[in-house]
Design brief:
It contains 5 helices and 15 strands. It has one domain: L-arginine/glycine Amidinotransferase, Chain A (5-stranded Propeller). 19% of the residues lie in helices and 26% in strands.
């Protein structure tokens, strides 16, 4: 398996955030945290490929938002944040050697952070960053490959995967009091529920036999270990200041 990541630009200090952080983003520290993340992916057995940073796009390190991958196809998204709509071309070029690349219509709004793949279902958050046009783009791209697209309303969160993430085939980590657990019943998903106050920790990366999880949430780490997962804890403070989570920084394929 491969992981596509993207460098962290010097302009990351002005990355978008819903609320101004209490302290400014420390770009050198953010780069060290991102490098540790890349090492953790490689240590888990993934082949890590990196796209150079582009200072014209302060948020470009969050590569997940620019593409959805399933069934050997990559859909280059039309991000909901206007300042990010030029990021996808470098991602398309990086993926073309391995995947069939298609593009969402310019009129659609879709962030990859709103798309959770569970088996043959793509759950898509209808949020401030993704809309019905983005849902339609997913259906057009992946419906012919046999995927079902299931919209999910996302009140109070930036993206769907701010409150849930995949733990591998047939398993999802979900924050209590967020998305309705019944959404996943048709896919016979094993749900692990993390406390509502640990909602940020519901975003983890399943990489090989390991789960990469953000530091500072010992209850969630214990929950995952009790369920049999090998947990790797990563510091993520500076990326979090720009509304970033662990899945945001890679695309697995």
């Amino acid at each position: 398996m491969r992981a596509l990541i993207r460098g962290l630009p010097a302009s990351f200090a002005s990355a978008t955030a819903a609320e101004a952080p209490t302290s400014p983003i420390d770009v050198p520290l953010a780069r060290r945290q991102h490098a540790a993340y890349a090492r953790a992916l490689a240590d888990a057995g993934l082949e890590v490929r990196s796209i150079p940073a582009d200072d014209a796009f302060p948020d470009c390190v969050f590569v997940e938002d620019t593409v959805v991958v399933a069934g050997g196809r990559a859909l280059i998204t039309a991000p909901g944040l206007p300042s990010r709509r030029g990021e996808g071309e470098a991602v398309a070029a990086a993926l073309e050697p391995w995947l069939e690349v298609v593009r969402a219509p310019a009129s659609a709004r879709l962030d990859g952070g709103d798309v959770l793949r569970v088996g043959m279902t793509l759950y898509v958050g209808i949020s401030g960053r993704s809309d019905a046009g983005g849902e339609a783009a997913l259906r057009a791209a992946f419906g012919p490959l046999g995927y079902r697209v299931q919209p999910v309303e996302v009140p109070g969160a930036l993206h769907l995967k701010c409150v849930c993430s995949s733990l591998g085939p047939g398993a999802v980590l979900l924050a209590e009091g967020t998305a309705d657990p019944a959404l996943f019943q048709d896919d016979a998903v094993r749900l692990l529920m993390t406390p509502a106050e640990d909602a940020y920790a519901a975003n983890v990366v399943r990489a090989g036999d390991r789960v990469l999880a953000p530091a500072g949430f010992p209850r969630t780490h214990a929950l995952l270990r009790a369920a049999g997962y090998d947990v790797v804890v990563l510091e993520n403070s500076e990326l979090r200041k720009a509304d970033g989570s662990l899945t945001c920084c890679s695309v697995l394929f």
